Amino acid sequence: MVAAHTCGVSCTRRFVLPAASIARLLAGILFSYAALHAQVSIMGRVVDENGAGIAGARVEVRSSAGLTVSAFSDPAGNFRAVLPGEGEYSVRVERLGFFLYTNPAQQFEPGASQLTIHLNHQQEFADKVDVTYSPPAIDPQETSERKELSAAEIQGVPYPAPQDYRSALPLFNGVVQDTAGHLHFNGGDSNQANYTLDGFNMSDPVTGRLETRINLESIQSMDLENSRYSADNGRGSSGVLDLKTRMGDDRFRFGGTNFIPGVTSDNGLYINKWTPRVEFSGPIVKGRAWFHNGLDAFYNVDSVHGLPNGQNRTSGLTVSDLSRFQVNITPANILTASFLYNLAETNRFGLSILTPAEATTNIRQTLYMSTIRDQHYFGGALLDIGFADTRGLLHNPSQGPEIYQITPFGNRGNYFSAVNRHWYRQQVAANLFLPTVHFRGSHHLKFGVDLEHESFHQQVARHDYEVLRDDNSVARTVAFAGMPFQSRKNVEAAQYIQDHWSPTDGVTLEAGIRTEWNEIVRDLEVAPRAAVAWAPRKLHDTKFSAGWGIYYDAINLGLIAREQDQISLSTFYLPGGVVHGPVATSFQVNDRALSTPRYQTANVTVERKLPFEFYGKAGYTWREGGDGFVFSTTAPQIGPMFYNGAVFVLKNARHDRYDAADFSIRRTFAGQFEWFLGYTRSSTRSNAAVDYSLENPIFAPQMPGPFAWDTPNRVHMWGWVPLPKRLLPPRLAFLIRNTTAAYLLEYRTGFPFNVLDEEGFLVGAPNSHRYPDYFNVNLHFERRFRALHYLWAWRFGYNNITGNLNPNVVENVQGTPRFLTYGRGQARAFSVRLRLLGRK
C-alpha cells in the first residue's frame, strides 16, 4: 500500500527541466524571432504626379519563383503587403486612367520597408514612347457597381455631338439619352441622379438636371456608380456621376482642337460650325504648385429649309472655362481651388419647319462655380474639407407679345412664356478616412458631413395662346392669372459612417448608414447600405458582388415652388357651338404633408477574366420606390370632367420600378486600344406616368405606364483599333501608318410617346406609342503626324453612316393630316477634327 503524499501551505514543489528541453525552447524562441525579423512587410503609398493619393490602385509584387502578393490602395493611397522573405521582386501597379507602372527589380530587405509609387495620368502625348495604359482589372475589394470612362475613351470614341461630354455618357451600360437630350441613369428621371464635379454638387437646384458644361480636354475621367454605392453618396436614387478634372504637372503643356472654323455654302457662304478647345497647364513652382486651364467654345449657325430667307437661321454660342490650381503646402497638406464659368446663348431656339422665327425664344444662361479644398494626410489618415459656391442665371424671353397659336400645320405668333431666373448654392463637405484598423481582418473607416444651402427666385411672364383645329377653328384658348413671381430656398444636411471590412483574403464587406435632413420636409431620413464582394480562390480572376441600400432623392426647388405659379384658364369650344370655361388649372403643395422620395436598390454582379485577356461582366439591378413625387387631382378627373377644372396636389403617390439585366465584355489591345460590347434588357414603369404642367397641359387622369425614356433592349459597341499594315501593298503602307479606326454602333428600342386629340386630351394609355427603333453607326479614321515640331492628330469620318431615320420628334395629335409623321434625327454627316497634341 502506497500512502498518498500531501503538501501543506509551506510545502514547495520543484519542477526541473532537463538541459535538452531548455535548449529546444531557446532554439524555438530564437527561430521565431529570426523568422519574424526575416519577414518583409511593405508599408507603401500610391500617389499621382502631384503627390495626391490614388485610391483603388492594384499593387502586385512577384518573386522570381512566381509567388505573387497583391494589395489595393485605400482612399488615402496607402497599401500594405507582407512578402515571404527578402530578395528581389518585380513590382507592377495599375489603375484605370493611369499609365502602367512596372519595376522589374525592386530589392526588399528584412523588416518593414517604405515604398512610394508615382502613377502618371494618361496623356494624349506621353513623355515616353514605351508607356502602356493600365488595362481593365477586377478589383476584389470594390463593393460598389462602379464604372469609369477615361480621358482616352472620352476623346477616342466617335459619339454624336462630341463637343459635349454629356453625349459620351451613353457609352455606359444603363445610361440613355432621351429625345430632348436629357440623361437617365438606372431607369430614373434626369433629376434623380447626383451630379458632382470633383466631389462638389453641380446639378441645377431648380430642375435637378445636369446643365453644367466643361471642356472635354479638362476631364480626366467620368466615374459612374449606378447601384451599390456607399453611404458617402446621397441626393440621388438612380446613380452618382462624378467628373474628375485634370491638374498640371512639372511640364508645360499646350493642346488645341478644332481651331479652324467650318464653312458652308448653304444659302450663302458663311461660318456655320466652330468648336475650338484649348488647354494649357504647367507648374507655378516646380514640385510645389501647378495650374490647369481648359477653354472651349461652340458656335453654330443652322439653316432650316422651307422657311423664308432671313427667317431660316438659328445661331448659338456656348463657352466654358475651367481653371484649377494646386499647392502642396507640405507633402502631407494639399490645397486645391477651381473656378468654372459657363455661358450659353441661343437665338431663335426651337426653329423648325413647324416653328417659324416668330414662335421661337432666345436663351441666355450663365454659371459661376468656385471651389476650394484642403486635404491633410496624417498618420495614415486623410482629412478632406471643401467649400463650393455656385450661381446661375437663365434669361429666356419670347419674340414678342402676339398671341401664340398651335395648329396642326405648325405654330404661329410669339411663344407665350418668358423666364428670368437666378439661383444660388453654397456647399460645405468634410470627410475623414481613418488609418487601417486590424481586428479580425482590416477595416477602413470613413466619416463625413455635407451641408448645402440652395435658393432661387424667378419671374415667369405669360400671355394667351390658342389651339386650332385643322379647319382653323379654335378648339381651346388659354389665359393666365396670378403673380408671375416665385422663390424658394432649402437647407440640407447629411452625415454618414462607413466601414469597409476585409475579414480574409478574397472577401470584402461594406456597411454604412447615412442620415439626411432638409428644411422643406423636416424629417430625419435614415439610409442604411450594405454590400459584399467575394473573389473565390478556386475561381481565379472571378468576383461575385451583391448589395442593397436605401436612397433618397434631392428635392428640386422648381417642383416645390409650383404652388406659387400662375393659374391657367382654359376655354373649350366644342362642336355645335358649345363653350366650356374658363376652366381653372392650378397646383398646390403642402410641405408638411410630404416626405422625401425614398427608393430601394439591389444588385448582384459577376465579373470574370476570360481567355485572351477579355473581361466579362453580367449583372441584375432592381430599383423600386413608392414615395415618388407626383401631381394628382383632388378628385378623379376623366374625359369631360376636366371641363369643370382641376386642382393638382403634390403627393408621395408615385410608385416606380426598374429591372435590368446587363452584360458587357471588353478588352485592351497592345496596351492602348479599346474594344467594348454591352447589352441591357430593362423595364422602367410607374403607376403615375402622366406629367402635368402649365406649359404643356395634358388632360387625363393619372394612369400607369412606361416612362418616356423606357427602352427594353439596347446594344452598343465601341472602340478604336490600328489599321493593319497588311491592308495595303508595302509601297502604299505609308498611307495608313499611325492611323486608327474608331467606331460606335448602337441599337435600341424606340422611346415611347403620348397621343393627344385636338383638345389636348390623352388618347389611350400614357406613352402607348413608340418611335421606330434607333440604329446608328459612326466610323472615323484618325492619323497622327508631326509638323512644325508638334504632334498633331486629324480625324475624319461619317456619323450615321447608314443614313437611318432615327427620329426625335413626332406629330402626336390624332386627327391631324400629319399624325404620326416623324421628324428626322441626325442625318448622315461628315465630320472632321484636328487636334494639336503637344510638343517634345
UniProtKB/TrEMBL annotation:
<dbReference type="GO" id="GO:0044718">
    <property type="term" value="P:siderophore transmembrane transport"/>
</dbReference>
<dbReference type="InterPro" id="IPR039426">
    <property type="entry name" value="TonB-dep_rcpt-like"/>
</dbReference>
<protein>
    <recommendedName>
        <fullName>TonB-dependent receptor</fullName>
    </recommendedName>
</protein>
<dbReference type="InterPro" id="IPR008969">
    <property type="entry name" value="CarboxyPept-like_regulatory"/>
</dbReference>
<keyword id="KW-0812">Transmembrane</keyword>
<keyword id="KW-1134">Transmembrane beta strand</keyword>
<keyword id="KW-0998">Cell outer membrane</keyword>
<dbReference type="InterPro" id="IPR036942">
    <property type="entry name" value="Beta-barrel_TonB_sf"/>
</dbReference>
<dbReference type="GO" id="GO:0015344">
    <property type="term" value="F:siderophore uptake transmembrane transporter activity"/>
</dbReference>
<keyword id="KW-0813">Transport</keyword>
<dbReference type="Pfam" id="PF13620">
    <property type="entry name" value="CarboxypepD_reg"/>
</dbReference>
<keyword id="KW-0472">Membrane</keyword>
<dbReference type="GO" id="GO:0009279">
    <property type="term" value="C:cell outer membrane"/>
</dbReference>
